[in-house]
Amino acid sequence: MNWVSIGTLSDIPRRGARCVATPEGKIAVFRTADDQVFAIDDHCPHKGGPLSQGIVHGTAVTCPLHNWVISLETGKALGADEGAVRTIAVRIDGERLFIALEALASRAA
Amino acid sequence: MTEKLVIIGNGMAPGRMLEHLLEKAPGRYQVTIFNAEPRVNYDRIMLSPVLSGEKAYEEIIIHGDGWYIKHGITLYKGHKIVAIDRQAKTVTSDHGVTEPYDKLVIATGSVPFIIPVPGHDLPGVLTYRDLDDVRAMMLAAQSRAKAVVIGGGLLGLEAAAGLNAQGMDVTVLHVMPTLMERQLDPAAGYLLQRAVEQRGIKVITKANTQAITGNGKVERVELADGTVIPATLVVMAVGIRPNAALAKEAGIAVNRGIVVDAGMRSNDPDIYAIGECAEVNGQVYGLVAPLYEMARVAASHLAGNEAAAFVHMDTPTKLKVTGIELFSLGDFAEGDDRQEIVLRDAAAGVYKRLVLKDDRIIGTVLYGETADGAWFNDLKKKQTDISEMRDTLIFGQSYQGGAPLDPMAAVAALPDDAEICGCNGVCKGKITGAITARGLTSLDDVRAHTKASASCGSCTGLVEKLMVLTIGDKYNPAAVQPMCSCTALGHDEVRRLIKAKGLKTIPAVMQELEWKTSCGCAKCRPALNYYLVCDWPDEYADDYQSRFINERVHANIQKDGTYSVVPRMWGGVTNAAELRAIADVVDKFEIPMVKVTGGQRIDMLGIRKEDLPAVWADLGQAGFVSGHAYAKGLRTVKTCVGSDWCRFGTQDSTGLGIRIEKFMWGSWTPAKVKMAVSGCPRNCAEATCKDVGVICVDSGYEIHFAGAAGLDIKGTEVLGLVKTEDEALEHIVALTQMYREQGRYLERIYKWAKRVGIAEIKRQIMDDGEKRKAYFDRFVFSQKFAQVDPWSERASGKDKHEFRPMASVGFAQAAE
Ligand code: SRM
Ligand SMILES: Cc1cc2nc3c(=O)[nH]c(=O)nc-3n(C[C@H](O)[C@H](O)[C@H](O)COP(=O)(O)OP(=O)(O)OC[C@H]3O[C@@H](n4cnc5c(N)ncnc54)[C@H](O)[C@@H]3O)c2cc1C
Ligand code: SF4
Ligand code: FES
Fold first, then answer.
1. Contact B509, B494 (CB under 8 A)
2. Rounded average pLDDT over B620-648
3. DSSP letter at B601?
4. Ligand nearest the Cα atom of residue B605
5. Is residue B322 pLDDT above 80, yes or no?
6. CA-to-CA distance for A28 and A42, rounded, in angstroms?
7. Which residues of A touch B801 (CB under 8 A)?
8. Cβ-based contacts of B548 with chain A (< 8 Å)
9. Minimum Cα–Cα distance from A16: chain B residue
């Protein structure tokens, strides 16, 4: 697996998110209140809302456009809504964060 | 013929007696009540939550006017009985009403004791007994000055906590070395003192009050050791005395209280006494549980059952100060024939002590954790031999018999005759029985049918658990709509508790109010953030992660993830320089759309997030600040051209609109606030469908509010007419502040006004000048922290991370 460095934990506010730009669109990287880190496509399964702009609570994010709640762990919409976004593996090595880029390349291919 | 029953006093004891009587012997008596207090029967023990602002008077009424009408009872409010004529069998009130009786019940309660020090009769010295006292204290608290409470017992501490919650600087003077020494041992008294002091209340023990002094009103309290404490309000809560003077004058036997037998009958066979004024078997009582028992006994006798008899009972004491858990029962003095078991957990602030005699519990003091109070009470009442479980007894019921039980299981394990509600003496079996037999599904129903949790409310949690155990999912907790699924509390309770408990961060709210999730959800976090911003403007640090994206980045998100930017255009007025600057920004950042909005502003749509700080920097150079088009806050003040130009204009509507907007911009509100000022009743600024609107007329300014023109359409209500611009501003600002303090998050003004009542808002804003001024001042104070332009902050680098990607990766790989 090709782990690509994207920065450090402190780059992301707690209960917040940052984006990573890639050739196929943005990836949203989230940090929870208890410092877990998750990465998913920044593209809501409903109408493509930028999930990185939502409110983070527990291990979920609420989409800023129409309030779907997406699980950061599985990428699936929670509650009554149906849909999912791709999740991307994250590795935390001390302060540094890496995401699994091969997944990206394979999709690009 | 129906007999005439006359009751003197309409407090908690006779209220209960009548309920029993109406059930046991409906129609037997024609009932007349005289009450010195000018009101119906209310829950006196809930005065403390009223004082602290956690409850309204309306919420503590036991029998409303309708109840008396329905049962054909005549209630003379504000009539004090001044004479009982036992020969003629009549009573006479201070207003000259004379009423004959066949049976008379005296229920005059107690009178608060007043220490006869010099100055005890100065204006500003109050007692703590009835609603008038509470209202007087709340009025005094508005000046936010200093209060001294004399007496560190139950009442004194509840008064102190309430006054503190109302913003007063409070000192408690207590003559003994530790607080509540009649109910607590010194260790628990110490913990209590620390908890009280942590709220910012000062406590002086061994304080011997010598005099209250001041020029025509209270100004200070002087102690025997020379200490002088400045005070504008003194509350005496040093004890009560049975109110038996009237009975004594009528020649009825009186000792400490009115002497009655176990059937509550005095030495005159047609006269009964119940409540705090009665003395039975040499004892007088000051907690409602035994008084309710007296009420039951007296009702039985009046209904013809002469067998009912009062037996002495011990009642647990609890302090009704939110956040302080305390329980005390029975006898806890030390003695050779007694053993004790003590548990302390300093970190958790827990102290528990059981006093045992012959392997039976005779006294209990619990501080910090009181869940097992009911169980210990039960063991004591039944005189259970505890030798078998002695080693684990202090850990409570859940530790008995193996694995620790969860709280639900602990309640399930209670025997049917375990007492749940101490105030009303209701046991578990009675509650579960009523739930099943009558199909009860709400807490209010259970209160109505069993009385459990209907008095001081401290057993509400237990009753709710019983409901869940009995009917499971059918239990519908509280009629109030919870804020969200993270809590059972509604918006209003949360707002009240934030103030009452002095909660100043989101984690503190979630901890203290027992949020069910670790960090809330997208519904409650923005609401909590607003409540904290509003309530503690100078202390609370805004939590941006709890704001919707629009308020976090100070622009409106669009469907494609770009943003729109609306600069403030005061009152809708602009000029060539501003328009030129906008045009330049549109060119430079290739902004795809420029649009004139409904609120007289210019909207630039389709801006990339990364460009926002640079757009704002350019706009800022031309003098623009954020238009808050994204905010739950003041949006726009629309104006018409007014007397400056228009041939019909009566006042300078444009000028007033700009003035209001410059005064109020930056303030956060429960939902967005839109305003407008029209120069005459032709109303070209459409002021009559706004949250707040002004229609200028020849004689001044007609202020409107509670209009809507979005999801709902609704014309405004008229708040009132004022003469000058200054007054118009003051009224509008005060109205907005009232809404800021009371509105539920996302509730527009028209919905809030419907909930609290147009008349009430008019009363507070138009009629009560002092209230209006206080609202105004609080708004002005909070503006000191709110009027910072968020755009210029961000143009100079604040929250940089928001506007830039964290990294750009994968481009090389993709290119390969
Ligand atoms: C720009 C504007 C339309 C226009 O092009 O003219 C507009 C645009 C939006 N309105 Fe509006 N409203 C605009 C005037 C109005 C008006 C008329 C007015 O203010 O004179 C109303 C009816 C009056 C009222 O507020 O009650 C109006 C009632 C709403 C509502 C319904 C509110 C309600 O409680 O009934 C929403 C939805 C909401 O706030 O939750 C809304 C929400 C929105 C949002 C913020 C939708 C959103 O959440 O993204 C739109 C943002 C677009 C943007 O990015 O700028 N907009 N909207 C107007 C901006 C006013 C201004 O100058 O600041
Ligand atoms: C602030 C506060 C908190 C309390 N907290 C608790 C608690 O947590 N738990 C608890 O168990 N108890 C508590 N108590 C005590 C409880 O409220 C009283 O024990 C109970 O109200 C006494 O009931 P009563 O009917 O005897 O008298 P009251 O409720 O005092 O009623 C007496 C009524 O008689 C009227 N009256 C007096 N003289 C006359 C007359 N001559 N003619 C006509 N009317 C007259 C008075 O105006 C009054 O309305 C508290 C009391 C106060 C003040
Ligand atoms: S009416 Fe308002 S909310 Fe609806 S599409 Fe138009 S701007 Fe958006
Ligand atoms: S785009 Fe995310 S909820 Fe609609």
1. yes
2. 94
3. -
4. 1
5. no
6. 5
7. 11-13, 18
8. 55, 64
9. B545
- The set of protein residues with a Cβ atom below 6 angstroms from ligand 2 is B 8-14, 34-37, 44-45, 47-48, 80-81, 107-110, 128-129, 155, 158, 243, 246, 275-276, 286-288, 291, 320, 423, 456
Q: Which long-range contacts (CB under 8 A, 24 or more apart) does B138-144 make?
A: B138/B51, B138/B166, B140/B168, B140/B232, B140/B233, B141/B166, B141/B167, B141/B168, B141/B233, B142/B166, B142/B770, B142/B774, B143/B232, B144/B168, B144/B169
Min CA distance, B812 vs chain A (Å)?
9
CA triple B601-B604-B608, angle to 5 deg: 150
Which chain B residues touch A105 with a CB distance below 8 Å?
810, 813-814
Beta-bridged to residue A34, according to DSSP, are none
d(CA B316, CA B707): 52
- Residue A15, Ramachandran bin (φ over 0: left; ψ between -120 and 50: alpha; else beta): left
Q: Is the pLDDT of residue B236 over 90?
A: yes
Query: Does the distance separating the beta carbons of A62 and B526 come in below 8 Å?
Result: no
Nearest to B16 by CA among B429, B438, B298, B308: B298
> CB of B812 within 8 Å of any CB in chain A?
no
B809 and chain A in contact, CB less than 8 A: yes
- Give the pLDDT of residue B400: 67
Minimal Cα distance from B610: which residue of A?
A: A19
Q: Which residues of A touch B519 (CB under 8 A)?
A: 15, 32-33, 57-58
CA distance B552 to chain A (A): 9
Which residue lies with its CA nearest to atom 50 of ligand 1?
A: B556
Query: Can you give the pTM of this predicted structure?
Result: 0.56
Using an 8 Å CB-CB cutoff, list chain B residues near A69: 521-522
B741 burial level (CB within 10 Å; 0-12, 13-18, 19+)? middle
Q: In what order do the strands lie in the sheet with B220-223?
A: B209-213, B220-223, B228-230
Write the residue with the smallest CA distance to atom 4 of ligand 4.
A66
The C-alpha angle B494, B507, B794, rounded to 5 degrees, equals 100
Q: Is B156 exposed, middle or buried (0-12, 13-18, 19+ CB in 10 A)?
A: buried
Contact B809 A99 (CB under 8 A): yes
CB–CB contact A21 B805 (8 Å): yes
Place of tokens 């199909």: B439
Q: Pairing between strand B202-204 and B169-173?
A: parallel
Picking from A16, A64, A101, the nearest residue to B548 by CB comes out as: A64
- Short-list B350, B343, B335, CA closest to B393: B343
Lowest mean pLDDT among B51-60, B396-405, B643-652: B396-405
- What is this model's ipTM? 0.68
> Tokens at residue B567, please?
């600069």
Q: What is the sign of the dihedral through the CA atoms of B139, B142, B148 and B150?
A: positive
A58 to chain B, any CB pair closer than 8 A? The answer is yes
pLDDT in tens, A15-74: 999 999 998 889 999 999 888 999 999 999 999 999 999 999 999 999 999 899 999 999
- The single residue listed with the structure tokens 């309409």 is B10
- Ligand positioned closest to the Cα atom of B750: 1
Using a CB–CB cutoff of 8 Å, tell me whether B814 touches chain A: yes
Residue bearing tokens 């922290």: B785
Cβ contact B676:B638 at 8 Å: yes
pLDDT of amino acid B314: 83
Chain A contact for B806 (CB, 8 A cutoff): yes
The string of pLDDT tens digits covering residues B417-462 is 888 887 778 889 999 999 988 888 888 788 878 888 877 766 777 8
How does pLDDT run across B731-790, given as a tens digit for each residue?
999 999 999 999 999 999 999 999 888 998 999 999 999 999 999 999 999 999 898 899
At residue A52, the 3 state secondary structure works out as helix
